[in-house]
Amino acid sequence: MAVFESLLQFSSTGTLLGALLLLLVLYLLSTGSKSQKEGKEPPGPKPLPLLGNLLTLDLTRPFDTFFELSKTYGNIFQVFLGPKKTVLLVGYKTVKEALVNHAEEFGDRDIGPSFRIMNDEHGIVFSNGENWKEMRRFALSNLRDFGMGKRGSEEKIIEEIQYLKGEFDKFEGKPFDTTQPVNYAVSNIISSIVYGSRFEYTDPQFTQMVDRANENVRVGGSIPMMLYNIFPWLGPFLKNKRIIVDNIVQSRQQMTKLINALQETLNPHERRGFVDSFLIQKQKDEFSSTGTLLGALLLLLVLYLLSTGSKTQKEGKEPPGPKPLPLLGNLLTLDLTRPFDAFFELSKTYGNIFQVFLGPKKTVLLVGYKTVKEALVNHAEEFGDRDIGPGFRIMNDEHGILFSNGENWKEMRRFALSNLRDFGMGKRGSEEKIIEEIQYLKGEFDKFEGKPFDTTQPVNYAVSNIISSIVYGSRFEYTDPQFTEMVDRANENVRVGGSISLWLYNIFPWLGPFLKNKRIIVDNIVQSRQQMTKLINALQETLNPHERRGFVDSFLIQKQKDEKDSYFHEENLMMSVTNLFVAGTDTTGTTLRWGLMLMAKYLHIQDRVQEEIDRVIGGRQPVVEDRKKLPYTDAVIHETQRLANIVPLSLPHVTSCDVTFNGYFIKKGTTVVPLLTSVLKDPSEWEKPNSFYPEHFLDEKGQFVKRDAFIPFSAGRRVCLGESLARMELFLFFTSLLQSYRFSTPPGVSGDDLDLKGVVGITLNPSPHKLCAIRYEQSLKGYRNQTCIFE
Ligand code: HEM
């Protein structure tokens, strides 16, 4: 019944009672009609659909419950924890027979969602296969070296007992809770084997680590965590899951400090404990000491030179590419500070389809308009899956739209598209929202009174409010820290997500604990989820099925209707909202900022835009309909998107099956990068690929012309879901701002100082800069000569 009570916490009582009644009917029907497949599967109590045996199991003491059940079903029986079948082994003979005589078959660890958040399938307790074998063997042999089960640890234990007695003595015979002193003493034994020294019981670094570990062990066995294992979408609502995640984040920080300190004082000839042994082994194995690395590089170079002479490239089979080194692949020769430029450069040698090895990971590059279009559009199915590497996995966990695949992706994308359209995406509804938001943004610009300022935050907040009002049903104030922090964190994750350390993390995920950037991303996610949960809970509480305020409402209503439907669960809601929020903010904000910067850089082009707007629109608010009458402005916006090239690598795809493409064989599961840079700057498509040249989109009569190779939103199955919204936003924001302001560089900064290279993240941002936005009054002539206001 405890489960029943816990379930009540998560659902509205009415819906739950209805669902239970339905399940009861299903149960009664099924009891009469079907026979149990005894003799094949182990026997066990009859499960209800979806809930399995949860309603009849007392999960407060599951071990007693299972033991009790064995009296009815024997020594091997099965229960259903929700939809998850679990076989119980009961009694000495059965347990020994399975674990010892069938050691191989029963020897793997089941790593459910709650253990996964703690461990990520590394280490010893929650890993399997070769990783587990290697880690267990290494731990056993090293723990023995440091005295486990031998004289060495005997001495440590005897020493620690004296400290523990000291603690007990402090109570002078008065009553006390033995938990902390006993835990600290016991923990010091393993700590001195692992770290090489014991800790004082007054050292908060140590006591917090012990207390947190104990809390996680306790909370990890609680009913909410069992439910989380069964229904992981409950995660965002479970306080206990948050406690565990917070404890992990904090303990990892402290462990990292301890390990770093050991690393700094490491002496390979004097190992102090298990960590030292591991670090030394790591150095040996992974070339991290400079000497070894240089030696290894030399060896690799020799191997490389030898192999270049002897083996022939399998051209015509796999795509060509630079010769990879073992383990490191082509990493040493690739400039990951601007990977898209490095790949584009390589295509000059290897052609439009080539492969590189990022570490051991093969990645196929698609280069130029024809190849990218051929793959993404004509072979949409084969090239349409998303590659979800470790870096994206921490952000998304394969739910939502951006980083999911298969039926989950299809359902979420379809639902998002149709609902975003219902809330006005690409239509009149969002036009009104955008025009309203522009007034707020102008208010922000005006506050600077013509003095130089960084456009990042106001532009991002304004743009984010458009997708926010579609998703949540309302805009936020620019002074609301709840909102601004969410936007700032999303942008930080997009920036940090494209850093070299995240590339390395994608290639060698074991680097994770040492990477500050990974920690930044995880912390941002944890905090943003808490804020999103609050926002969604507030919407849930005031939900009216007859008046949907935004995408979240639609999702919640669908979730209520379709409780059985596995796709409309909490995790998909959180991830879809995150995807729309992040993808809908950073991209459009960044493009708009490029646009304003380019106007300040190329004043003669700004002149022409403003002349056209003055002539065609005058002082009234620009609307979408005006686009047709503003060919030059439209061309400038398109050219901004082309040259700014803000998603230069698109997002990684993966082949969904083996595919032979343009004569090359690409295996199922190969990472594929459609190099959008190479399309937007394809020299065979654009007259001046590297210049800002709005004429790319104009015919000789000055009329706007579409260009096939203009695909900043990518193409095919995964084409940007927000394209129509983004295009509308860019047009309205850009024309309205250019109508009202003259943009120029700050005093002392020339247009030439504004660089076009940008800052690399997942998206390509303008380099840090400030602009002056000087109000342009229609009545004033000669606005072109107005310059920045001096402070
Ligand atoms: C100038 C603005 C934008 C640009 C340049 C842009 C570009 C892109 C690109 C290149 C992709 C990856 C396509 C691929 O995998 O091949 C993408 C995906 C996506 N974009 Fe955008 N985007 C923009 C604005 C938006 C907006 C406003 C939204 C919000 C509604 C949005 C939502 C998404 C989503 C949900 C996906 C994932 C699609 C999927 O995996 O099925 N984007 N975008």
UniProtKB/TrEMBL annotation:
GO terms for biological process: organic acid metabolic process; xenobiotic metabolic process. It holds the Pfam family p450. Coiled coil: none annotated. Its cofactor is heme. Gene3D superfamilies: Cytochrome P450 (1.10.630.10). It comes from the Eukaryota. This is Cytochrome P450 2K1-like. The lineage of its organism: Eukaryota, Metazoa, Chordata, Craniata, Vertebrata.
